From TrEMBL:
Residues spanning the signal sequence: none
Family that this chain belongs to: Belongs to the DODA-type extradiol aromatic ring-opening dioxygenase family.
All copies of domain Extradiol ring-cleavage dioxygenase class III enzyme subunit B, residue ranges: 6-262
Organism, as annotated: Anisodus tanguticus
Record-given protein name: Extradiol ring-cleavage dioxygenase class III enzyme subunit B domain-containing protein
Keywords: Dioxygenase, Metal-binding, Oxidoreductase, Zinc
Reported cofactor(s): Zn(2+)
CDD domains: 45_DOPA_Dioxygenase (cd07363)
Amino acid sequence: MALKETFFISHGSPTLSIDESLPARHFLKGFRERFLSHQKPNAILVISAHWETSEPTVNSIRGRHETIHDFYGFPKPMYQLKYPAPGAPELAKRVKDVLMASGFTTVHEDKKRGLDHGAWVPLMLMYPEADIPVCQLSVQPNRDGTYHYNLGRALASLKDEGVLIIGSGSATHNLRSLGSSKNIASWALEFDTWLKDALLSGRHQDVNNYDMKAPHAKVAHPWPEHIYPLHVALGAASEGVNGELIHHSWDLGSLSYASYRFPSLNRSS
């Protein structure tokens, strides 16, 4: 069966993997029942903010993934977590083929890289059995939002093959601004609200040009890697479709866990 939607998940802090006080953790644990209880994806394609390359790269893993603990100074139990999902080499080849057919002339394969925490932290909550094949696709921080939106458009046909496409990043991501305050920083709130309004009203081009259109864009995203997975998920939905805010919470004064669903229009089931 075809899948009719794509998703953007704000994965926030790696402590999402263990911290029961975070509302986003409970949202992700209920994700499958809320959105995909009727269907198990054939495979999952994750575009993670934590894999940056100069050109599109997919991981093509045979067997089980290694779990990459790509964070530092966190509680010891977090480094003992594993998410040994099977690799998806066939999907990796399909991703490479559809991207190259759409004009992305160079697409690399990485046959060794496991899952970084942008992928395995949300997936261990959404699909704890780790029984669905997973493929990761990198982001290119040297490119812009429109480029990543077009990456998503090229990937859209994979939904017809039962592939769940998830962008994993963060609606706001300025690590130097994090604190313990329960009061949300005004710049974070203004950017987050602008992004929500643009997505819910289907203003895709504004989102693609967020760095010029959105208030406090450079403060909310000093570097763009955490917002580009959103552009890919958005591009893989129908052009102009209105997004749906499916979760919203804050942590550490400026870290938004806003997550979105993008339905697809006029697709066969």
